[in-house]
Amino acid sequence: MYEDILSTLSRERLVELLSLYAKNWLAMDGVWFQSVERKLGMEEAMYHDAEAWKRFTVIEARRIKTFLNLPERPGLEGLAKALSLRFYANLNRDGVEIDGNTLIYRVKECRVQSARSRKGMPFHPCRPVGLIEYSGFAKEIDDRITCECLSCYPEVTDDTCSCAWRFTLHE
Which domains does the chain have, with CATH numbers? Predict the structure, then answer.
């Protein structure tokens, strides 16, 4: 039945559905996190968030790598392509710059932080989990790539974006 419905949708409606799925997934991610945060506090919620991301980011990267038919070591160009297809790629405004053996990835507008701000909640202290997420994702795409945080709440050093990450390819 699902495939029958999908086959009747126009390209525009399919793109709209992808966006809806991404929003639903991100909402679910936020709902479980906020449930733990309310009941057990931020520290406990961050622990479970980190544990989930350790596993999820590898699964997501592996599936995207397969979908894109990337070679075993696709370098920074492969990472840039993979980052553009992450589950929330169409929800956040972001940008990629490659210079030599370095890729800078900036999330210019973060849907999670915007939602928390809109609800009067403190910002999500995503730096430690972001490091797990982006490092694990990059390593699964190409094991020669390392990641470091340039700016991310609560350690913001660049107020022109929500967060910034440097990926380095080690030949």
Answer: 2-169 (3.30.1380)
